[in-house]
Structure formats: C-alpha cells, structure tokens
Amino acid sequence: MEFNGMVSVAVAVVLLGASILFLQSMRKKKLNLPPSPKGRMPIIGHLHLMDDDEAAHRTFARLGDENGPLTMIYMGSKPTVLVSTAAMAEQVLKHNDQAFASRPFLTAGKTLGFDFKSIVFAPFGNYYKRLRRIYTVELLSPKRVALSQVLRQIEIKHVMESVLAESQAGGPVNMTSKLQEMGIDNLVRMIFAKPNMGATECLTREEMVTLKGVVKEAVNLAGHIYAGDFIPLLDIYDFTGHKAKTQKLAAKMLKIALQLIEKNKSKDSGPNMDADKLNLVDILLSQQGDDKLPDHAMAGILFDFIIAGSDTTSVSIEWALAELLHYPHYIKRAQEELDAVVGKDRVVDEADIKNMPFVQAVVKELFRLHPAAPLGIPHYNMEATTLAGYDIPARTTVMLNLWAIGRDPAHWQNPTEFNPDRFLNKDITMFGRDFQLIPFSVGRRQCPGAGLGLAVVQLSVASLLHAFEWSPYGQKPEEIDMREKPGLVTPRMSDLVLTAVPRLPLHVYS
Q: Which helix (H) or strand (E) covers residue 400, if one does?
C-alpha cells in the first residue's frame, strides 16, 4: 500500500509538471518568421530546391520573387534568410549591422580559413576587430593602395605586351586566361614585392605554378555547397570526401604560406625601417602585443589576399569586355574619352581615371549587373533578433543576394540592360551610402579590399579599351556566351576569345 501510494504521488507530480510545461508552451509567443517556400522536407529542409545546373544566386532570386524580399529557407535544419532587395539590405547592413556581423561556422571556414583565423571567415569579436584594424590601417590603407600603384601598372603592361604579340602573330587572344594570370600575379606582387619595387620577380616559376594550383583548388572547393554543413550525419561520415579534401588542401596551403613568408621576409626589417618600404610579409611579422599573429593567421591573410582578390578582379574585367562587345557605341564613347584625357602617346595612369566619368560609369554598371561574388559572404546572428518586423532565431544565416539587389526594379529601370548612362550625372557610390549598389557589401563586414579591387578593375578596363580595338573571334557579338558558371565567384561559362587590333603607336606598348 505504501509503495502504491508513492507511485501515485510520483504519477501526480509527473502529470503536474507535464501540465505546467504544456501551459507554458501554449503561452509562449509564436515566432513571426519571414515567409518560407512550400515543400520543406524532413532532414534536408529546402536543399532539394537547389539545382547544380543553376547558379545559387539565381535560385535564391527566384525564391525571393515568389516569397518576398525577405525569405526564410532551411538548409537542412538550419534557418537561412535570403535578402533580395536594396531596402531589406539596408535593414540588415545599416539598422542591424552589429546583430548580423558574425559568420556561420562552415567547414570552409574551419579548414580553408585556418580555424576561422582569416578575415573572411572569422566570427565577429575581438580577434576580428584586431584583424580588421590591421587590414584597414596597414595592409590596405588608401596610402598602401596608392603605393602599390606601380605594381598594378606593371601587370597591366605585361598583359598589353602579350596581347600585342599575339595580335601581331595573327592569332586569337584568350582574354580569360590572360586576365586570370594578371589577377594572381598582381596580388603576389602586392604581398611579396616592396612598394615601388618595379619589375623584380617575387617568386620562382615553380612557386607560382604551385601557388596558382592551390588557389584554383581552394576556389573550387569553397564554391561548393557542402551538405555536411547542414546535415550532421553527412558531416560525420563525409560520404563525398569533401571534408577530407579541404583538410588535405588546408595543410598544403599552410605549408606553402609559411615557406613563402619565411623566404620573403626582409633581412633588414625592424622597428626603425621606413613603413613605406615594407612589404605585406614584413607588416604581418611586425605585429606586436595583442596584434601578434600566429602562423596559421598569417597564412589565412596571405590566402585571403590572393583568393579573394585575384579571381574577383579578373572575372569583373572579363564581364566588362563581354558586355561592351554587344554595344560598340559604348566602346567608342569610352575610347573618345580616353583619347581626350590620355592621348595616344602614353598608357593610362590611375590618376587619369578621376577625369573619366564615362569609364567610371562603365565600371559601376559592370558591378551592378555582375558582382564578382554575387552572394557575398554569408552573415550570421549569434542571438535572436528582429528584422523588418520578423523574428529571426539565433544562429540564422543571412544571404545577401548582391546580384538580385543590383537588378532590383524598385531602383533600376530596365534592370537587365547594360547601360552605363544610368550613372552619368548621378552621385551613386559603391561603398555603403546607396544600398542598390553594394558589390563590396557594407558595414562591419564590408570587403576591406574594396578600394584596391576598384582601382585594379578601373585601370584594367580603361587600359585595354585605350590600347586595342576588340571584336569576338569567329563569332558575332550577339553569339558571345553570357552564361554563368556556378560557384563562389561567378565567371562566364566559356572562355572569352577575342581579336585585338592595336590603336596606339607600337612604342607605347613596350
């Protein structure tokens, strides 16, 4: 009887506790989540909506059109908010910037980001703030970008000489290949060469081949959506081998980075050395106190520079040429402006660009239609918050669709048309004031290399238009392949092969 009484009491307690929990759950506020596509499935969420043959930014733009400018999808069990208009981008990057200033904890950040020590993948916090200060004050300050101008001039001159040689030989010019070479060579010079170093080569041919190989592999791996990031079982067993590949590559990248840093550090560097004579390696090694960087953080910075800066610039320049070839009258107008400012007896200098409003408009229109990284880098909130009246749970990924924002019909007339005139006599910037054009993002996670990237693209586009008459090789302009290749960076589907005819006296090219 005593035993049965104890059981009765225990049952009563359990029932009472269950009743309290039930009542609490009933009283608990129901979350007002952003609209979500139908068809969410167990375990995989909305992953089945992703199409390997369609670039992710196009899939996300379509989902935004169907569900609203703020759409919540589930990558596995993990909530992801898609942002596809300028107004919603302003809500995230201006009014809620700090709340969404972190990064999701993805495999790429753990491996290729050297345990989240690169500025691209580092979560928001004290380490990120110190790293950001090193970038903005020392590595990529306006002064440092200006000092490296001579290195950019050298690389674009190399491209012009190479194009001229192939033109004189009567053959076609593969601009995709040449621009890819220029993109990585330019960043390597910025890292290892002294400012005003001139044409001195920084790495051996073998070192460059090795470096380019790992950069290409890293871009390809980082551009794949890894299902193990969203479905834990797939991460545990790594059925596709993706995780193992990234770990193996990361070890190789770390070894290469440390070898190059050791080889290229200045023997005469020290606290009294003129800062203007330091290369990037010297700056990294000179950090003291809390800013002193461990080896894997320096490796992360080195590869941040090369991976984030090389493909993005080469892809942008290529898209500019491909678009302009459809509109010969725009090329003519740009060349008339170039001839008026520069003449035909010298090459374009960066100082000339400020006097070329139409060339600047061409580059802005390029970034509007073809942001090099159309989804940017995802944002992340560590704590629950609200956004535009919706409840956003903690640990939600936020994807800003820069491609869709640049085509937002609320801001752009005929948004799919390439038309540089839309920027003439209009004060529209690319650095955070005008959210309809944010190719480098905005706020605490804005690309620290935005100024450098813009300088490279403007100089390259202006120089190539000034130096050559361009036409498609073996096809009409309307036959140029304008399809995109899916990935983190979005190049064209096929190489851009052109015919180039010099339009300057030959002595100018050498």
A: strand 396-400
User: What is the C-alpha to C-alpha distance for residues 198 and 202, in angstroms, rounded to an integer?
Assistant: 11
pLDDT digit string, tens, across residues 116-126? 999 999 999 99
Q: 25 lies in a domain?
A: no
Secondary structure element (H or E) that encloses residue 237, with its range: helix 232-237
Contacting residues for 478 by C-beta, under 8 A, at least 6 apart: 326
Residue 16 covered by a domain: no
Chain segment 128-166, per-residue pLDDT in tens: 999 999 999 999 999 989 888 988 999 999 999 999 999
Instruction: Report angle CA 217, 222, 226 to the nearest 5 degrees.
Output: 120
Question: Which of 57-71, 146-160, 458-472 comes out lowest in average pLDDT?
Answer: 146-160
Domain hosting residue 102, numbered range: 32-509
Say which residue, 187 or 329, is predicted with more confidence.
329
Under DSSP, is residue 430 helix (H, G, I), strand (E, B) or coil? coil
Instruction: Specify which residues 41 forms β-bridges with.
Output: 45
Closest Cα to residue 183, out of 75, 97, 90, 311?
Answer: 311
Instruction: Report how far residue 74's alpha carbon sits from residue 48's, in angstroms, rounded to the nearest whole number.
Output: 10
Q: Count structural domains, the chain.
A: 1
Phi/psi of residue 434, each to 5°?
Answer: -110, 105
Report whether 202 belongs to an annotated binding site: no
CA distance 305 to 313: 12
Whether 23 is in a domain gets the answer no
